[in-house]
Amino acid sequence: MDPIKVTEIEEPNLIEDMFPHEVPPHIAFDEPILERFDGETVQIDPADVKARDIHLTDTTFRDGQQARPPYTVEQVVELYDLLHRLGGPNGVIRQTEFFVYSPKDREAVEKCRERGHEYPQVTGWIRGDERDLMLIEQIGLEETGLLTSCSDYHIFMKLKMDRAKALEKYTGVVKKALDKGIRPRCHLEDVTRADIEGFVLPYVQELMRISEQADESHKVKVRLCDTMGFGVPYPGAALPRSVPKLVMTMRRKAGVPASDLEWHGHNDFHKVMVNGIYAWLFGCDALNGTLLGIGERTGNPPLEGALMEYAGLKEDLCGIDTNVITEIAHYYRSIDTRVPARSPFVGADFNKTRAGIHADGLTQDERIYSIFNTNKLLGSAPEVVVTDKSGSDGVFLWVNKYLGLEGGDRIKKTKLVKVMRWVTDQYNVERRTTAISDEEMVALVKEHLPEQYEAAVKAGRVSV
Fold first, then answer.
1. Is residue 15 part of a domain?
2. What does pTM read for this prediction?
């Protein structure tokens, strides 16, 4: 192997076409994504995603309701308004779905529809049963999800049917929905554990034949539900677990248009986001998720994470208001919902560092240890938490950020010796095992830097 010499340059190469900092990082591909399908190599051009109408749908008020205490009607309306603002005027968050069984469910549906938002569209969710369909008709919803379980675990062991009976039952409800002017969205529950060739493919082909008779606004939709999180994105993986092959089977063999195909995942094996992105890449336009990923068991794709991936693929925010993500996190905390501190974008500590070496980097240039301009996009600037690992750089960054000092106005480390010594003694002498609280740091600033503190208060950089 021939040695490769370092290329000397006068200015740093910050790869800003990929890491623009003012928006989420762009997702660039050097070449097509390859997958084997039906004995041939299929090339997927990621650039195609920019041209397609990929988008998100929401199940916060359906799957999300199965993972937490019930929302009040008022809370549902508040979150619905936040979803509307988050997805923006272009409808990046296109739809949201609701249970309709209880009077409270139906009241929440009506209150949200009264808001008059074009996006997200309010849709329903019911079992694949004609009696349930009457509820959707009574409420007057234009679209509903239909639970149509497709693995033999469900067909034989849960529903106590055979495949022919299940197909007849499901397609019968779909036809009834279309007769009533309701657009059916068929949820293929447990599809990553189903017999694709033996049941799923014949079933979906029949759905598409039925759909051909419907007008354009009532075409049958298909949602691929990775109910147990068994889906994998790996090239060469076999059906039914392969997300790429599932999507391509629906597109190429069943004839489902990308616009009518949706992915719904669970995070049982920590693949919920990557599986959703692969569904987008291989020809599924809609990715279903929930706010903060709150969903049954391990949860669904977090909408906030999917929106960042969307912006990265599109290389544009497309009207998304990312600052609403922080509002949503605050709102969940206000209704006694635990938001894990290290959750990306929403956790209290997602952009806090305890490492002195990271604090040093942030002091020199925020871009060194900041994923993007979090202050601009999320209203949350990078911070430092002072511990025994923070060192002098951590104390230096905390104090100057608190006092609102930048550049040459920052207090030098030599003026912070007493503060640093106190912190060091906490761990080396007192054997402390917890972080230094902000309240303790403020007290130290007041005690050892009274002039600088008073100046910051007078200038309005610090509130008393």
1. no
2. 0.93
